[in-house]
Amino acid sequence: MTRRRTLSVLIAGSAALAVSASALNDHAVAQPAPATTHHTGTLPDGATWIADVPARWNGTLVLFSHGFGPLVAQNAPSKGSAAALLAQGYALAGSSYDPHGSMWALNSAVADQMGTLQAFGERVGKPRRTIAVGQSMGGLVNSLIAQQGRGKIAGAATFCGIVAGGVDLNDYQLNAEYALTTLLPQAAGVKIRDFASEAEGAASGQALTKAVTAAQSTAAGRARIALAAALLNQSTWATGATPPAPRDYTSQEEQQARTLTSGQLIFIESGRYALAKAAGGDSGSNIGVDYSRLIRRSPHRRQIEFLYRKASLNLRADLSALNHGTRYASEGDSLNAMRRTSTNTGRLPLPELTVHTVSDQLVPVEQEATYAARVRAAGDSAMLRQAYVAAIGHCAFTDAEYVAAINTVDRRITTGRWANTTSPALLNTTAKALNLGPARFTHHHPSPLLVQPPA
Questions:
Q1: DSSP helix/strand/coil, 198
Q2: Among 40, 92, 198, 397, which residue carries the largest CB count within 10 Å?
Q3: What does the pLDDT average to over 196-204?
Q4: Whole-model pTM above 0.85?
Q5: Which domains does the chain have, with CATH numbers?
């Protein structure tokens, strides 16, 4: 019962932050339901898999990797996209991942997905081609499948993915949590790691939320919230049709605080337990982190400096307090475990299209810049294309945007070249033609994640 209650908190927190595309998808033209055959099975580790195959299968399988949450098999990113893909002739498959493991399922997810592909081939027939598709944590899984999938996977479409990997995720979240507990008197003493349960993590998240709510009432509190939000790579656009003006630093901070107090901190702290469970300890570390250096590199530096001046606070003093405060080290072999299971190398032997909303409160769009740099360093930039959607929220895509991206990857596999198919204009044209809801692809150039690189 404790686990179920905690899962409810996790899911509720995520839902509060993710601006759903369901209302937009309600305006889509209904797709005729094709005759399909549903398959289920169980893998050796206990993971379940499901598949749906249309009567007129086109020979292509969409292998879907689901995100962080209950370990239940899913085979498409949304109900509407599933119906549309089946109508186009695609088969769909996906696994639950190991049900005995952590919700951070990277220890088994890639193997379970490849096991699902094999089981599908034995049950239904070998696909002519397979497109790997992933969402959120499943986006990280998908990047690893793409990295390892030569000869089995033809291409990949990755949505709202944690593509910078689990090591960076743990580190920048730790930096922000540490800043809150060090700089906000209301958060002093709140535990930020080494939780014995999901419930304990959720309780810490609630305590941090309460502290941010109280701090928001003072100019000093608002300045320090902005600093912590920058370390979290937090977007300054959480509500409204358009983001605050570039120099409207007060409104930007209000939107950051709104996000932090709307369930984000509960979700992060609860999730930290799951990552540590998977890695055998918390891999997060701020050993050697220079917080002054990080803030100098932050795209929100001017906002922070403005709010500190407005509060008559000494920014250098606060950064010095962070630099001379508590240091946390990676525990045991957890860092190696996260590098081994939850970090991609940037090697990309097959075409991949990643898609992200420009303002994602749970998985910052800056993940994409870090991933692109990693792929570039590996010499595989020609294989990667990245697209952005002008929307707020985690995985807040319309069915049209999901299907257009998958169709674009399929076209790349067929033709052997990207050409200009991933430009916002052509992606919007492709999406609008589907009659599945709005198309909002746009130009965007995110900064790299604000996280100290390894020495």
A1: helix
A2: 397
A3: 97
A4: yes
A5: 22-165+347-442 (3.40.50.1820), 166-337 (no CATH)
